[in-house]
Amino acid sequence: MAQALSNREVVLSVRDLVVEIPTRRALLRPVDQVSFDIGAGEILGVVGESGAGKSMTGNAVIGLLDRPAHIASGEIWLNGQRIDHLRREQIRKIRGKEIGMVFQDPLTSLNPLLPIGEQLRETILEHLAVPQREAEARAVAALEEVGIPAAAERINSYPHEFSGGMRQRVVIALALCAEPSLVIADEPTTALDVSVQAQIISLLKQLCHERGTAVMLVTHDMGVIAEAADRVAVMYAGRLAELGPVREVLTRPAHPYTTGLMASTPLASKGRKRLNQIPGAMPPLARLPEGCAFHPRCPRAEDKCLQDPGPSLAGCGGRAACWFATEAVA
Amino acid sequence: MSALVSVKNLTRTFDVSRPWLNRLLEGRPKAFLHAVSDVSFEIEEQSVYALVGESGSGKSTIGKMVVRLLAPSEGVIEIEGTDLFREPDQERVEKIRTDIQMVFQDPYASLNPRWRVRDIINEPVTARGGDGTGLAERLLEQVGLSAGDASKYPHEFSGGQRQRICVARALASEPKLIVCDEPTSALDVSVQAQVLNLMSDLKEEFGLTYLFISHDLTVVEHMADRIGVLYLGRLVEEAPRDSIFNDPKHPYTQMLFAAAPKLDAFGREVEPPKGEIPDPINPPSGCAYHPRCPFAIARCTLERPEMRQVGGSRVACHVAK
Question: The dihedral of CA B289, B291, B294, B300: what is its sign?
Fold first, then answer.
């Protein structure tokens, strides 16, 4: 992990992050011992099935965990500043300024009662020390940058007057207008059509590389990851299963879960009559099995997997958290 | 093999006008949305026919008309040679309707939360006065759940298991045709594979025919024998799977395939497609795709292309060859 980032400045560093939700029946851990770094200008893809903890990890980083979920232990560092224990007012100054956010549904992340220009100006004035007129110009520039035609005229339009793809562009403009060093994009293209998805992915990549913004791209779509991400983190039941350069993880997966996930996409089973499938489903957090959480579905599981979760990511060259991963990587 | 379903010049419009008083005061005419325009295709018995397209292309509307949840505005849907909307013999209509079932996209919304799984699965049979004893238990085992699950409620199951229950319900009346509207879009990849495999197995076992509606080209490529591509309510290309994937003729089909994310396209830098789907209430003149089409010529803006045979495909394009 460290060597992959040596030539880049580390923007976000997450260390042994644990998020806990106390419930009446049990203490749930939707995020368990997660560590990763994102460098400037880098896109880290975070994949996993629903309930794997990928969105929860993103929300923990921007301090948007809903009660009773909270960070139980671990550290989050942003540009050398520790941000996981900040108070609400302090994290508000960072959110929007240092960290931009793009959510899945662009209609619910924009205020339907305000023109988009108003929302952009508000964000710019809140976070940058610029006069009103300058904010106006910046808002138009931000819209032009994300490819909205006739930005100067459309700045007074309301969110409902835009199509889904254009709305997501507005959200990206909003996320980037205060020039953050990190953008968290949570399923930014899931609600969009294929052709519009291609446009948004290409826009995100271009903006990130031009400005050197670090991007945490949360998605369940392996195809999107393959096209956009530099490195990929695979999550399963709240833990990081595998982390590595996207080409290597996707073509030579080290964790049996990644192997199964890749094989079960129709693309990978091209020409075959049946798809490869992983038996069973991800266990609910309240009933995680002992040992490695994947062992009931794992074709390679042995006795030791039933008792011990196996080496952590850092323990085996930073690639995969699995007893059998070290041999696969070596 | 003969055609089980034959769709001819199918059209469906929706009235999207403002209320009459607004129209009167604002002097506006009535507005119509053409969800499906002049679509014709045939589905062979025991095959999988896939309809693909982006949102607003009319694929779900066609599916609903085939199962008779919606009436066509114009055109004919014949199932086993019978037009269910015009057939005077009600007994025959009822008989053919039991041959058609549907699986919906969202397994959370399509199962009644207050019913036991047994009643949900038996419903298509008992609603017609049949005897459902032991049927649910048998079908549950067929779709990979256990007979004991019959007395549980839907909330006790995961998304993939719920979709299996939906498939079991669709099988209950021993149908010939199942319309699947995005059956795996709400599921995770590993569960999606399980459900797709199950659907393939059941097709072999019961000799089913599927009308498979999806926006996911990888799923369609895996499942379909024949594919129809829809754009703004019109069929733009129709061909057997291999010819459409190896040699897409219509510029829209080509764009759709190029834009789909690929697993081996690391750091791919391609020009993303231009423009967006136009407003279906005021579609562009001529070929609806011409404002986004890189090959558009003057004729495309004026004249709507008719379906014509190009190689093994039917294509609605002036330029394709």
Answer: positive
Q: What is the DSSP letter of A302?
A: -
Q: What is the ipTM of this complex?
A: 0.80
Task: Categorize the per-residue pLDDT at A1 as very low, low, confident or very high, splitting at 50, 70 and 90.
Answer: very low
**Dist CA A268 CA A258 (whole Å):** 13
Q: Residue A221: which domain range?
A: 2-98+180-256
Helices marked H in chain A — which ranges?
2-5, 54-61, 88-94, 116-127, 132-145, 151-154, 164-176, 194-211, 222-228, 246-251, 256-263, 303-307, 325-329
Q: How many CA atoms lie within 13 A of B75 on its CB side?
A: 22
For the beta sheet containing B74-79, the strands, ordered from the edge strand earlier in sequence to the opposite edge, are: B32-44, B3-15, B74-79, B82-83
Query: Could you tell me the CATH number of the domain that includes residue A12?
Result: 3.40.50.300
Total domain count, chain A = 1
Nearest to B55 among A193, A230, A270 (CB): A193
Q: Do A193 and B190 touch (CB under 8 A)?
A: no
Q: Please report residues of A whose CB lies closer than 8 A to that of B193.
A: 264-266, 275-278
Note the pLDDT of residue A3: 41
The structural domains of chain B, with segments of one domain joined by +, span 3-99+175-246
Contacts of A206 (CB under 8 A, 6+ apart): none
Query: What is the structure's pLDDT at A182?
Result: 94
In a domain? residue A294: no
Q: Which CATH superfamily is domain B3-99+175-246 in?
A: P-loop containing nucleotide triphosphate hydrolases (3.40.50.300)
Instruction: Please state, in angstroms and as integers, the Cα–Cα distance from residue A284 to each residue in A15, A280, B8, B54, B154, following that order.
Output: 24, 12, 48, 33, 16
Q: What is the dihedral of CA B111, A51, A107, B163, to 10 degrees?
A: -20
Q: Do residues B307 and B316 lie in contact, with contact meaning Cβ atoms separated by under 8 Å?
A: yes
pLDDT tens digits for range A126-182 = 898 899 999 999 999 999 888 888 888 889 999 998 888 889 999 999 999 888 999
Query: Distance between CA A306 and CA B209 in Å, rounded?
Result: 43
CA distance linking residue A264 with residue B120, whole number of Å:
30
Instruction: Note whether A190 and A104 are within 8 A (CB).
Output: yes
A82 close to A75: Cβ distance less than 8 angstroms: yes
Neighbour-count burial of B171, counting CB atoms closer than 10 A to its CB (0-12 exposed, 13-18 middle, 19+ buried): buried
Q: How many CA atoms lie within 13 A of B31 on its CB side?
A: 15
Shortest distance between the Cα of A116 and any Cα of chain B, in A, equals 20
ω into residue A68 within 30 of 0, thus cis?
yes
Tell me which of B164, B190, B230, B293 to substitute to probe the interface with A (most A C-beta atoms closer than 10 Å).
Answer: B190
Which distant-in-sequence residues (6+ apart) come within 8 Å of A274 by Cβ? B197, B200
- Is residue A38 included in any domain, yes or no? yes
Task: Note the Cα B259 to chain centre separation in Å.
Answer: 21
Q: Express each pLDDT in B38-75 by its tens digit.
A: 999 999 999 999 999 888 889 999 999 999 899 999 99
